[in-house]
Amino acid sequence: MGRLLVGVLASGRGSNLQAIIERSLAGKIDVEVAVVVSDVEDAQALERARSAGIPAVHIPPGRFRTKLTPEAEQRYVEVLDEHGVEVVVLAGFMRILHDDFLTRYAGRVVNVHPALLPSFPGLHGQRQALEYGVKWTGATVHFVDAGVDTGPVILQAVVPVMDGDTEETLSARILEQEHRIYPEALQLIAEGRLRVDGRLVTSAGGTDGATKGDAGATGGDGS
Ligand code: GAR
Fold first, then answer.
1. 11 lines ligand 1 (CB under 6 A)
2. CA–CA separation, 136 vs 13, rounded Å?
3. 133-163: per-residue pLDDT in tens?
4. Does the Cβ of 114 fall within 6 Å of ligand 1?
5. Cβ neighbour number for residue 162 with a 10 Å cutoff
6. Same domain for 80 and 127
7. Which atom of ligand 1 is least distant from the CA of 171?
8. Which residue's CA lies nearest to atom 8 of ligand 1?
9. Claim to verify: residue 155 and residue 125 sit in the same structural domain
10. The domain that contains 23 carries what CATH number?
11. Element housing 4 (H / E)
12. Of 123, 175, 156, 164, nearest to 13 (Cα)?
C-alpha cells in the first residue's frame, strides 16, 4: 500500500504540522506531507516544511479577512493538485474554505480543533472553555464540512481543566493531545479504515482505546 499524500494548510506556528512530519519521517504513519501551503508569508509552518525538505508555498489569501478569494482558492487547488494531494490537512489554518473547494475534496479535508466539539467552535476554543468554567475540555479531529467546526468527528481526546489554568497552560495541555491524535487520525485514513455515515464516523477494528479512554490517561474521570 502506498503512502497517503497529504497537503497541509497552516497559518502560523505549525506545531501540529511538525508532529505529523516527525511521525511521517520516522515511518510511524503511512502518510507523506507532499506540500505545505500558507496564507501567511512568514508563517513558522513554512519554515518547518523547508527544514524538512518539503515544498513550502505562500499563497496570498486575497482581500477578504476570514476567507480566501475565489481566485486565491483556485490557486490553492492548483498547488495541491500539482503535488498529487489526496487529503487536505488543516493545521491552524485560519481561513474559511468555500463550498467549491470542499466539493473538490469532498470527504478529504480534515481539521484539528482545540476543544471537544460541538463545544466551543470557532476562534479561541481554549479561552471559551476557561470562560465557561468547564472542568474537562480537549481536542477534536474532524472532517470539514461547510460549517465552522461542524463536520463529523474522527477522534477526540479529553483534557482536564485545572484550577489556576491560564489560556497558555490549558492550550499547552490540549496541544499535547492534538499532536497525538492528529497523526493517529491520518493513519486511520491512510489505512482506509474510516467509514462515514451521516455524522457518524466509525473505524473498522475500532479506534485506539488509548485515545477514546484518554480521560484515564490524563487524570481520571473522577469515578
Ligand atoms: C492549534 O491549537 C489548533 O487546534 C488551532 O490552532 C492551533 C494551531 O497550532 N486551530 C484552531 O483554533 C482552528 N479553529 P499550530 O500552528 O502550532 O499547529
1. no
2. 25
3. 999 999 999 999 999 999 999 999 999 999 9
4. yes
5. 11
6. no
7. 2
8. 92
9. yes
10. 3.40.50.170
11. strand 4-9
12. 175
Cα-trace Rg, the chain: 17
Residues 176 and 125 in one domain: yes
Q: Is the CB of 178 under 6 A from ligand 1?
A: yes
Pocket test for ligand 1, best of 8, 15, 18, 66 (most atoms within 8 A of CB): 15
Q: How far apart are the CA of 125 and the centre of ligand 1, in A?
A: 9
The 10s digit of each residue's pLDDT in 183-210 is 999 999 999 999 999 999 999 876 554 4
Find cell 513554512 and name the residue.
46
Atom number of ligand 1 nearest to Cα 122:
14
Q: Quick one: 4 and 91 in the same domain?
A: yes
Number of domains in the chain: 2
For 94-127, how does the pLDDT look when each residue is reduced to its tens digit (9 = 90+)? 999 999 999 999 999 999 999 999 999 999 999 9
Please answer whether residues 142 and 111 qualify as being in contact, where contact means their C-beta atoms are separated by less than 8 angstroms.
yes
Best mutation site among 11, 16, 171 for ligand 1, i.e. most ligand atoms within 8 A of its Cβ? Answer: 16
pLDDT band per the 50, 70, 90 thresholds, residue 214: very low
Domain coverage including residue 116:
112-223
CA 209 to chain centre: 20
113 is an active site residue:
yes
